[in-house]
Amino acid sequence: MVHLFNFQNDTLAFDSESGALHKLDELSAAVIQSYIEHEGQRPGELAIQQLETSLGPDVRECLSDIDELIARGDLFAGAKTITPDQLYPDQPRIKSMCLHICHDCNLRCEYCFASTGDFGTGHRTLLDLATGRKAIDFLIEASGPRKNLDIDFFGGEPLLNWPVVVDLVDYCEKRGTETGKILRLTMTTNGVLLDEEKSLFINQHFKNVVLSLDGRPEVHDRMRPDAGGKGSYQRIAPHFKDFIELRGDREYYLRGTFTRHNLDFTGDVLHLASIGNQLSMEPVVAPEGVGYEIRPEDLPVIEAEYEKLAIEIRTARETGQPFNFFHFMLDLSHGPCAFKRIKGCGVGIEYIAVTPEGDIYPCHQFVGETEYKMGNVHDQPIQIDPEVQKPFFSLLVPDKPECSQCWAKYFCSGGCAANSLHVNGHINGVDPISCQLQKKRLECALWLKT
Predict the structure, then answer these.
(1) How far apart are CA 203 and CA 247, in angstroms?
(2) What is residue 407's DSSP assignment?
(3) 42, 254, 331, 450: which is deepest, by most CB within 10 A?
């Protein structure tokens, strides 16, 4: 499918099947539009004559150039056909785990999907070492022949349970050596308790770290106060600056969330860029009526803000002060394979979450949705409930009618199942707001490639 769009006075054509990106002049844009109107086929003679009348005698030469691109598979490429057997040649294997180190937090973020840490249970709990070890052993066993496994140390706030973090890191390395597995560790932290000792340990053992900071002090403090209602920015930002300096060239992300209180979030991204150069800023996911949720009428403002951010990123590159923005990072030649693009994150099939009590869920955003509990690592033997898991096998891009004719389908991989559940009441759908924002971010990313 070819997506033709205008961005900052440039006209671009992107073929979602081949990954080819073309910057167009007025003539080629008009001719490709005619191909689109003819469902990817060469326009008929009458349409060609009409193009010549409006665009001049070079139309037929342009048609020949486009026909050559089509023949090479660079434009109007055929859709990929991939069977479940190709996606899961040795049956689905769990390879990633979100390990909840605690269900407690020292912040009270207003938009927190985890209900400020306890996931709506009313009970604040810490993962014990025995449960954590059983979770790791389960991942190793369930992964079968898969060698590379990922574990995200998550919360709540994992630094509240630091001794268990240290012990489980040691256990991961020990079990990796024993089994020949490579356990790649990630941590997500709000940074309140981050100090030099913890930073040095994390930098030594964790492949990636997500640092939660929403941007400008007043924006951060409005949505991310501490348990006493006071702002947290002044305590957290210095910790993150020190951590990033120690981190060096290892992977990390400064990750913020924007709400309708700060639709001018470019200012927040640029503020984060003054602290580090690996950045992410996510739109809040929230129910209607809370006041800070993204609403349909906000979308034109947000789309314009994404364009503004793309211009700032290009300017930063040109002035020798570049930074990466997660949603604008796009590898058209060596990005995710077709299989990954079609099955997405593997929620409930290749990816699970484990709570401090050992309960297994399809992902961290399903925790607390008791009908989606899949098992428990204390069970003997541990078994994933097939009835709970079954619907997640159908979350493939080709199985979603809303995605079949969408040019962006291989980049969102059908969207987030948890978002669909909370918006539509079922997992096999899409969130219309998320879809529109994803498309705009992709246009920005494509423009930055030119």
Answers:
(1) 6
(2) T
(3) 254
